[in-house]
């Protein structure tokens, strides 16, 4: 429990919840984030204030520190690694969003590619014991086979965001192979919950339904998503942190790299109708629906095959969409 962990993107949604759990479990945590304005910076600062208060209330202030910096700045990042010796690095820093990548591709190159390589270079020279990084279900593109398996071909991303996440997996594998860095990549499937991202559909829908405004329902409402509650995600991450890879699960490669990729999802796609109804029930308000065709870069369904994650780590998501959405809505009401 005395291990030192670096969490990039610690002011982000998943980063906040994971950092809080790590502090609670007695790890020594350093968080970094660039606090960019992709969405409301006030929410990011609110998360950081909650982490500071949490550490203070539990008398463990010395076990948590935060630095505002961008991982695309190699010199500043190296300064963090020169100051502290980390046992584990968890990379949750990335330029998020599928549709935003159509308008601002440079942001994805800087953070998701340049920043990712900078981080691996620091890990390489610091002899990190385990590098954990966030990938995404978006790497599966328009995969017609369901559920999505980590053995499926992912060579055809349909957004730049997805392409950068696929690139992360390939780059991390090469560093693992060349420099013996144990690496675990996690393909997240539509994570939601309290303190979530305002650019996500569940946040936008909640705000508009609450205000009596119409919501845009794409693909005529025929969408399905493998919504995964944040507590289940954090539980899976904590298991990965505790047990770094000792062998590779890739049966289709002769590579001896200590490198594994897992899906981390609910293994239960939910229709958009059920998703919206859960919000309506939690708000006790009806949605005004504006049906639209599919958006560029979007996919009709995501569905995680999590068998390998269950076998290797005992992962077991157990939060229903109704319970998870209600938890989010209650937080949203108090925050707003």
Distance between the termini: 36 Å
Query: How many strand units?
Result: 13
Give unreliable regions as ranges. none
> How much helix, percentage-wise, in residues?
40-55%
Cross-sheet strand order for the largest sheet: 3-2-1-4-5-6-11
Rg result = 19 Å
Oligomer status = single chain
Count of discrete structural domains: 1
Main beta-sheet annotation: 7 strands, parallel
Helical run tally: 11
Structural class label: alpha/beta
**CATH homologous superfamily heading:** NAD(P)-binding Rossmann-like Domain
Looking at the structure, what is the overall shape? globular
Return the string of H and E elements: EHEHEHEHHEHEEHEEEHEEHEHH
- Which CATH-level-2 architecture? 3-Layer(aba) Sandwich
- Tell me the β content: 15-25%
CATH level-1 class? Alpha Beta
User: If you consult CATH, what is the topology?
Assistant: Rossmann fold
Mean pLDDT, rounded to whole units?
A: 93
Topology record:
Layout (H helix, E strand, L loop, with lengths): L3 E5 L4 H12 L3 E6 L7 H17 L6 E5 L5 H10 L4 E4 L8 H4 L1 H22 L3 E7 L23 H20 L3 E6 L2 E2 L8 H11 L2 E4 L6 E2 L2 E2 H13 L16 E6 L5 E2 H12 L4 E4 L15 H7 L7 H15 L1
Parallel strand pairs: 1-2, 1-4, 2-3, 4-5, 5-6, 6-11, 7-10, 8-13
Antiparallel strand pairs: 9-12
Helix pairs in contact: 1-2, 1-8, 3-5, 5-6, 7-9, 9-11
What does this structure look like?
The protein is of the alpha/beta class. It has one domain: 3-Layer(aba) Sandwich (Rossmann fold), CATH 3.40.50. Helices cover about 45% and strands about 15% of the residues. It has 11 helices and 13 strands. The chain has a 7-stranded parallel β-sheet, sandwiched between helices. Strands 7-10 form a two-stranded parallel sheet. β2, α2 (about 40-55) and β3 form a beta-alpha-beta unit. α5 (about 105-125) packs parallel to α6 (about 160-180).
């Amino acid at each position: 429990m005395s291990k030192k962990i670096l969490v990039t993107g610690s002011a982000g949604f998943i980063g906040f919840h994971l950092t809080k759990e790590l502090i609670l479990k007695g790890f020594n945590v350093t968080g970094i984030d660039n606090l960019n304005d992709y969405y409301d910076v006030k929410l990011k600062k609110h998360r950081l204030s909650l982490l500071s208060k949490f550490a203070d209330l539990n008398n463990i202030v010395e076990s948590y520190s935060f630095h505002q910096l961008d991982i695309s700045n190699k010199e500043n990042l190296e300064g963090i690694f020169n100051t502290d010796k980390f046992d584990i690095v968890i990379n949750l820093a990335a330029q998020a969003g599928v549709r935003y990548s159509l308008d601002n591709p440079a942001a994805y190159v800087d953070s998701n590619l340049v920043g990712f390589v900078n981080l691996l270079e620091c890990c390489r020279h610091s002899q990190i014991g385990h590098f954990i990084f966030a990938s995404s279900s978006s790497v599966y593109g328009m995969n017609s086979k369901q559920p999505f398996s980590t053995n499926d071909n992912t060579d055809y991303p349909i957004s730049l965001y997805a392409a950068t996440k696929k690139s992360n997996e390939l780059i991390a594998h090469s560093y693992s192979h060349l420099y013996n860095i144990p690496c675990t990549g996690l393909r997240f499937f539509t994570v939601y919950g309290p303190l979530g991202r305002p650019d996500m559909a569940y946040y936008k829908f909640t705000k508009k339904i609450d205000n009596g405004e119409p919501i845009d329902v794409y693909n005529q409402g025929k969408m399905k998503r493998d919504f995964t509650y944040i507590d289940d995600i954090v539980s899976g991450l904590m298991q990965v942190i505790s047990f770094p890879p000792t062998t590779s699960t890739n049966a289709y490669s002769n590579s001896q790299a200590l490198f594994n990729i897992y899906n981390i999802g609910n293994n239960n796609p939910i229709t958009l109708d059920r998703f919206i109804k859960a919000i309506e029930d939690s708000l006790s308000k009806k949605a005004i629906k504006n049906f639209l065709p599919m958006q560029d870069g979007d996919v009709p369904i995501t569905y995680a095959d999590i068998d390998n994650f269950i076998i290797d780590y005992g992962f077991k998501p157990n939060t229903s969409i109704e319970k998870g959405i209600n938890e989010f809505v209650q937080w949203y009401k108090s925050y707003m």
